[in-house]
Amino acid sequence: MAEINMLQAINDALSIALESDENSILFGEDVGHFGGVFRATSGLQDKFGRDRCFNTPLTEQGIAGFANGLASNGMVAIAEIQFADYIFPAFDQIVNETAKFRYRSGNEFNVGGVTFRTPYGGGIAGGHYHSQSPEAYFTHTAGLKVVVPRNAYQAKGLLLASIRDPNPVIFFEPKRLYRANIAEVPDGDYEIELGKAEVVRQGSDITLVAWGAQVEIIEKAADMAAKKGISCEIVDLRTLSPWDVDTLAASVKKTGRLLINHEAPLTGGFAGEISATIQEECFLHLESPIARVCGLDTPYPLIHEKEYMPDALKTFEAIKATVNF
Amino acid sequence: MSNATSDNETVHRVSFLDRESVNIPILKILQADGTVYDNAVMPVIDEALAHRIYDTCVFTRVLDERMLGAQRQGRISFYMTCTGEEASIIGSTASLDDGDVILAQYREHAAIRYRGFTTEQFMNQLFSNEKDLGKGRQMPIHYGSAELNYQTISSPLATQIPQATGVGYSFKMQGKRNIAICYFGEGAASEGDFHAGLNMAAVLKSPTIFFCRNNGYAISTPTSEQYCGNGIASRGPGYGIHTIRVDGNDMLAVLAATQQARAYAVENHSPVLIEAMTYRLGAHSSSDDPSGYRSKDEEAKWQQHDPVKRFKLWMINKGWLTESQDAEMYERYRKEILAELKVAEKLPMSMLDTIIEDVYDTPPPRLKQQLKDLKKHLKKYPDSYPNSKGRL
Ligand SMILES: Cc1ncc(C[n+]2csc(CCOP(=O)(O)OP(=O)(O)O)c2C)c(N)n1
């Protein structure tokens, strides 16, 4: 076990993936010799050669379509989209093709070997084109899995599971934690099962749920609440599609309250889906309305980023309001 | 003549076209020593125009040097230079009418400067203060001004290319003798939007100049990993677009090509593609370190083709500029930029209310409610939100 950061953990996972399956290929803008703008793919071209780790021309649409083609013919395609904000040029290939390849061909063909990795999220003074959390567009699309790790340990295990999962996966990497999060990460090969949430902390008064970089935020809020005598249970969803209803519902049945936190705007965000489902599953157990602490319904601002963020203080306020409802 | 096959020469043995089949000459007018090639056909230029061009060159050089320094001191968060590409950008902008609309990529601040963007306006954008025309919403270098017909920069690459086609077409519909000009890098030319934009412009006959700055790299990716054909210019004829390749470090060549491209676009209601062969002398941005992907020797070689020096020598040869005047210009801009920088960095940010402005023409009730809730929260914890503290 070594203490490494999330970029190193991702690099390690990619290296293991390429080593353990010679059909796997890694590509994207600047990922070759340079190692990607965040350096997640450093050294991999030297190790695996230019045929298996390379720069593509600057076209996300091309990258996604190329990944689909590779995977439809038996390869494992690991594609990097440089920023999640730039996944939209690839939207048609991902939403209409990647997601529906298996369904529309009656499983004559599938692109289960595709994994798109992409850095998402704000808190880095990146303004509205380097900060978005576009997960909800993809959770709305049947046929895709959507995975978001919260730390270096998860990043490695979930990425390996994503690459090897027989379904296409979009893997959102919280870029503000890339270097900030350092964790103990096992050296060898391991996977964390997709579709399973993790109960990060036990509690009795309210369940807080988030994923990726926001888990740290709800943990902080829970610490603040603890000082007021409120006991929070914390659930990290880890996979948004398909998401682990059972684990969350069991937690809400125990605590009787739920707060959902995400960075993406409130309206149409994934919190709405969670909230509706938990309301169905736990109606008779709920002691207060389900709370959502999310981004505003605006593009991601630059100068008012701090104000925009669903931070720990806002979460703390919402915890108190929910518990005292 | 909708289908040209009937005019084609026929052959009876398989023979393919390849990249060598397309031979694209490069226009050069000005030599490295500041003299003009024999027989070169000069652009339209007089002393006043030459001075306006050179003034923009000097301003841009100083701005880039100063602001990169300011970024390193932590005074601004991000910066991008156009160092090495001044001739491509200024030579082309200087060939336009002020009513022509510019849609730039992000490295073309020399163009908005040429149009009259003031030093103060640059600083307000770079420091995201309350006087920034873009209300502090975008990262540094995303300039824009309706008054100067320079559309605000958007970070997603190549999106401005089909938009330029639409702007050009709108001028045709409005019966105006104006055009759109669209700048982009050779990297952005790989995006689907590039192909869509050029094809539509050709088919719909949109008076638009597509100006590719082929500067050798897209972040770390060299052109050899970006495309295999004969540059970007070779695509023009493929779409049926009038095309020229110029030495992008040669102010006079860029000026000549763009002057004629503009005349052609206006007269024929048609697009033109210009590929300027140049070099990105600086890093991609302040977050990038080019030593990871290119050699110092390569950079040094391109320093010899410095477009600003070459144009300066020409001005000196003409008797339009002296070394001491030149040095005085640099000094004046250094002082001016530093003075404006100090003012701009002290100005406050926009009021919090702007957070919900311009999402729609007027904020819907839900957004107003979100702002109200937010303000209530900020009043409770003012110290945790220094930007809005005491300014709600
Ligand atoms: C759609 C999209 N994908 C990726 C990026 C990230 N990105 C910003 S600049 C850049 C390279 C652009 O290269 P080029 O067009 O050649 O212009 P240059 O920077 O060389 O002037 C990349 C990949 C982006 N801004 N937009």
UniProtKB/TrEMBL annotation, chain A:
EC numbers, comma separated: 1.2.4.4
GO biological process: branched-chain amino acid catabolic process; response to nutrient
Ranges of residues in domain Transketolase-like pyrimidine-binding: 4-180
Cofactor(s) this protein requires: thiamine diphosphate
Keyword Oxidoreductase belongs to the record: yes
Matches recorded under Pfam families: Transket_pyr (PF02779), Transketolase_C (PF02780)
Top-level taxonomic group: Bacteria
Keywords, in A-Z order: Oxidoreductase, Thiamine pyrophosphate, Transit peptide
Listed SUPFAM superfamilies: Thiamin diphosphate-binding fold (THDP-binding), TK C-terminal domain-like
Residue stretches spanning the membrane: none
Protein name per its UniProtKB record: 3-methyl-2-oxobutanoate dehydrogenase (2-methylpropanoyl-transferring)
